[in-house]
Amino acid sequence: MKAGLTIALDAMGGDVGPAVVIPGADIAAERHPSVRFLLVGDESKIAPVLARHPRLAKVSEIRHAEVAVAMDDKPSQALRRGRGKSSMWMAIDAVRNGDADAAVSAGNTGALMAMARFILRTLQGIERPAIAAVWPTVKGECVVLDMGATVGADARQLIEFAVMGEAMARSLFGLERPTVGLLNIGVEEVKGNEDVKEAGRLLRELSLPIQYSGFVEGDDISKGTVDVVVTEGFTGNVALKTAEGTAKQITAFLKMSLSSSLLSKIGAFLAQGAFRALRERLDPRKHNGGVFLGLNGIVVKSHGGTDALGFATAVDVAIEMVETGLVKKIAEDVAQVHAILAPAAKAAE
Amino acid sequence: MKAGLTIALDAMGGDVGPAVVIPGADIAAERHPSVRFLLVGDESKIAPVLARHPRLAKVSEIRHAEVAVAMDDKPSQALRRGRGKSSMWMAIDAVRNGDADAAVSAGNTGALMAMARFILRTLQGIERPAIAAVWPTVKGECVVLDMGATVGADARQLIEFAVMGEAMARSLFGLERPTVGLLNIGVEEVKGNEDVKEAGRLLRELSLPIQYSGFVEGDDISKGTVDVVVTEGFTGNVALKTAEGTAKQITAFLKMSLSSSLLSKIGAFLAQGAFRALRERLDPRKHNGGVFLGLNGIVVKSHGGTDALGFATAVDVAIEMVETGLVKKIAEDVAQVHAILAPAAKAAE
After folding, report:
1. How many beta-carbon pairs below 8 A join chains A and B?
2. Using CB atoms, which residue from B231, B245, B272 is nearest to A219?
3. Cα A120 to the chain's mean position, in Å?
4. To 10 degrees, what angle do helices A43-51 and A18-31 make?
5. CA nearest to A106, candidates A36, A13, A35, A187
6. Tens of pLDDT along A32-61?
7. Does the fold of domain A131-287 match that of domain A1-126+294-326?
8. Measured between beta carbons, which residues in chain B are less than 8 angstroms from residue A130?
9. pLDDT in tens, A285-334
10. Any idea where the domains of chain B sit in the sequence?
11. A138: Cα within 13 Å, side-chain hemisphere
């Protein structure tokens, strides 16, 4: 089945399962004609939807799975119930055994990360995985990690995140030397908690192969001050959701203002092209796909409530990460960084 | 000098000092005719500006201070250089000795908090202070704390923050039973770090006099899901700045879109009333004023780069906190909560 790439899809993941995953894969199949798809899930539910998408059907294979992990299953529950036989497990397992080059799921994040870690294991030299998001900025886009895989990452883990995020930015944005910033509550060296300060010190003092730009603050993310923003999972997750909430709030305020008078309504009607452009720019479906970094394989998490277009974006991300050899890049970089970190730690003893 | 309230202003604080503080105080003087002001700072710089504001001059007194804390002074530096003789120190000290009922400064946050803690001390039963911000939501406003005073607050400190934020929401919004949420990366009990989980457990299980609504996520802040959002200082600071950055980003996107075609420009012209309403709604000057909670006195931090209108808002906040007896409310509530917490901790041993 090799030659082109194969992407395994958890067809049962997300709020509605095959009804979004299959049309989403169909859009991806149009964009990437040489890619093949492994559709994992309940065959009786996948087949009728697939029948309506002949283009996708030609490049797909269904792999039946008895169990579907529920969106509210706890990770431990999902592992117990879904081990070996759930669509989520089997999609990831296809990456492990070489049947697929990457897996995409819109299923529940905790369960997906737990299974991905269990099946694929972390890369040599990586203590903990991270979830990276692509964040729109006024200048373009940046990579932000971690979005919640590793709550309370320590200094060493933050440096591993920096290495992984930097490799992803090179892959995704085609940059030779992406700039990397550590998220903090001020740019002075004395600011922040011990882990952030220590990570900052190591990044400054050791000549790691990273273009380190120093501390950045919350508003630097959307300014595009750096290409990669590194933080531990709690803060990263809160920052992402706070930004999503603020975007919705301002859009709501804008709508209210524009419908407050007849003149405004006429103005809004004339400027509807501009509002469409704004909506497109802020469209969360264009920035869908949390990439799991630090594992022996690519797993991409799609938003559970997205539609076919959004799911297709997550598949795009997975394909791009495979094509640019992200896992190999990370493995090489981590080895290089640890060759510098280890003697430095010894010297400090 | 009593009878009415007296507010001490650090006239040298902020990016430009008296040129913003004095006109700002003048606006506040118009809004609150019975309030008196103690203008602390370099008399030779305050007097000429004050001469142009006769209304303020009538209700003000200048207290000369030799030193002005710089915006980039480290807290330790500010304490060393500014102890006893800086405008910031003397404004806070006026609260301690009863010459003023509250102090407002647009000076550097770290120095202001260090001096406020040193001079006013934390309230009995409060381990660490917090900085609370008033955050605009789609429903109205909520109180969010901590904005960076206490990085890495533990469970007990988070509960103290909940108590203080709840008292502030009662004062500021006139609510009898404000709802309180703990900021987390999911609403399930198993989510988050140990401190947040433990604080959540205590708030759920003990019958504290707080309307606890459970965990909330980043996007719940702007949704207005609860009246008070509690988190430790690192996350709170990042969330606030991320939201500010996102608001600026969307405004920039909106401007770009509206100027992209002639039709859009005409539409924007017709709808200018709506955009003015939106701008007003998002105006950061209307939400200026970080309240220092947990000290024996009220200190309000104004944004350093704000203008007179923004500074006047911070003064409004200080006056409201004094008038509603915030410090006394917090002291009473904390005593009540510790009366419940202490036996519970003992029973758990």
Report:
1. 210
2. B245
3. 17
4. 50
5. A13
6. 999 999 999 999 999 999 999 999 999 999
7. yes
8. none
9. 888 889 999 999 999 999 998 999 999 999 999 999 999 999 999 999 99
10. 1-126+294-324, 128-286
11. 18
- B264/A278 touch (CB, cutoff 8 Å), yes or no: no
Q: What is the pTM of this model?
A: 0.91
For the stretch B9-34, pLDDT in tens is 999 999 999 999 999 999 999 999 99
User: What fold does the segment set B128-286 form as a domain?
Assistant: Isopropylmalate Dehydrogenase (3.40.718)
- The CATH superfamily holding the domain B1-126+294-324 is Isopropylmalate Dehydrogenase (3.40.718.10)
Does residue B277 belong to the interface with chain A, where contact is any CB pair within 8 Å? yes
pLDDT digits (tens, 9 = 90+) for A252-281: 888 888 888 888 888 888 888 888 888 887
Q: How far is CA A187 from CA A206, A216, B5, in A?
A: 19, 6, 38
**CA nearest to A321, candidates A153, A119, A132, A113:** A132
Tell me what ipTM this predicted complex has. Answer: 0.89
> Pick from B136, B193, B249: which is nearest to A138 by CB?
B249
Name the CATH code of domain A131-287 (choices 3.40.50.150, 3.40.718.10, 3.40.50.300, 3.40.50.720). 3.40.718.10
Q: What is the CATH number of domain A1-126+294-326?
A: 3.40.718.10
Q: What's the token pair of residue A309?
A: 């277009």
Best A141, A185, A286 member to test B by mutation, with max B CBs in 10 Å, is A185
CA dist B316 and B25 (Å) reads 10
Minimum CA–CA partner of A244 in chain B: B219
Residue A1 has pLDDT above 70, yes or no: no
